[in-house]
């Protein structure tokens, strides 16, 4: 009898469980600035003029920088945008160069496997439109509470060899997260990318009527795939950057 009653209570709970289909999530992205700078410096050529510049600011810049992001979701659609903030002048310069974050606006339609991203680079507007990233996941039995949600850890590989760690909750069924990484059975509330020296965690989840940014980029922008973007920018940037630094920049751009 006790077993039957317990089973009935569990079934009733499952029947009335709330799985939100729309809302807004605020994230804090913490960039380990000094570590990221060291990685870029190590990738620069010895005769690169920017190497001395980065070495000079390495001792003066803050250890970390915290950037805020807003994710809006409805069903299989999400948009992600930066929240404007006031930063230390050196951090602002690094942001403007794209080194810490491209401050991009992202839109994804998961049902159509469409991803669009818009950002400015060196005074030019870039619009990337492509299919969703391919991510190979392995879900673990490690859990962590993030913003009041029990999240399960998954280890993934994307962009051929970039290792990522995600914490997702199946209580929010949208299979997305704070960036282009996706494909887990629930919303990603925590994401760590060791190669890029950043982690991003949700701080607030609200189930409201979101405002999705579906029409991103400027009218004059020509959409390019990730491959087209990489080839076009590589033709220009390879004059000053080596292969290692280019790979770091493109990884940050596409995530």
Task: Describe this structure in a few short sentences.
This protein has 255 residues and is α+β, with helices and mostly antiparallel strands. 26% of the residues lie in helices and 38% in strands.
Can you describe what's shown?
- This protein has 255 residues and is an alpha+beta fold.
- Helix content is 26%, strand content 38%.
- It has helices spanning 2-15, 33-43, 49-58, 89-96, 226-237, 243-254, and strands spanning 22-32, 64-74, 77-83, 105-109, 114-121, 124-131, 135-146, 149-158, 162-169, 187-193, 198-206.
- The protein has an 11-stranded antiparallel beta sheet.
- A hairpin with a 4-residue loop joins strand 10 (187-193) and strand 11 (198-206).
- The chain starts with a helix and ends with a helix.
- The model is unreliable at 1-16 (pLDDT under 50).
Key phrases:
eleven-stranded antiparallel β-sheet; 6 helices
CA gyration radius, whole angstroms: 20 Å
What is the terminal separation in angstroms? Answer: 53 Å
The counted number of beta strands is 11
Q: Count of helices?
A: 6
Helix and strand composition category:
alpha+beta
Order of helices and strands: HEHHEEHEEEEEEEEHH
- Low-confidence blocks of residues: 1-16
Strand order of the largest sheet: 6-5-4-3-2-1-11-10-9-8-7
**Percent of residues in beta strands?**
35-45%
Largest sheet: 11 strands, antiparallel
Give the fraction of residues assigned to helices.
25-40%
Question: Which word captures the global form?
Answer: globular
Quaternary state, please?
Answer: single chain
Mean pLDDT: 89
